[in-house]
Amino acid sequence: MSNPEAFPASSLPEEKRQPRQSRLVKAALACQRLGRFDVTLRNVSLTGIGGQGPHALQIGERMTVIMPGHEPMLGTVRWVAGTRFGIQTDREIETMRLRAAHNDQIVAADSKADFQIIPPPRVDTWRPGLTNGPPGQFGRKG
Question: Where would I find the PilZ domain in this sequence (predicted)?
């Protein structure tokens, strides 16, 4: 049954969402009700952001989104779960600009790798009282 008229309007498949990229970026939101406040973005797509902040937002609320590497843009809150939220932006987000503009920001874990190889510790495995005898003989020297 691939006929769209066979399904009621409420059961039609929704429009497919844009692919999301995991990011950990500090940003800010602003609105008339709460003023300006800092948030942490965790997911970014071409047309939206997902994150967490100090306030519970309201679905349908219009927000100004302030992200590194971008001019402030307007967006609409699409979902809320406690202090987590999803916002659909009015303009497209350039994810590469988010990655490049991380001077004083939290950056995605995959954008910077700073590590060094540390050799394992040298430990003497000699244990007093144990012997290296023929197989099957265990115990103390005697």
Answer: 32-90
User: What residue numbers bound the domain in which 62 lies?
Assistant: 18-108
Decide if pLDDT at 45 tops 80: yes
Q: pTM above the 0.85 mark?
A: no
Q: How far is CA 70 from the centre of its chain?
A: 19
In a domain, 136, yes or no: no
Please give the residue that has the higher pLDDT: either 6 or 30: 30
C-alpha to C-alpha distance for 51 and 78, rounded to whole angstroms? 12
Element (H, E) at 31: strand 21-31
User: Is residue 59 included in any domain, yes or no?
Assistant: yes
Which 3 state secondary structure label does DSSP give 6? helix
In a domain, 71, yes or no: yes
Strand partners, 84: 52, 81
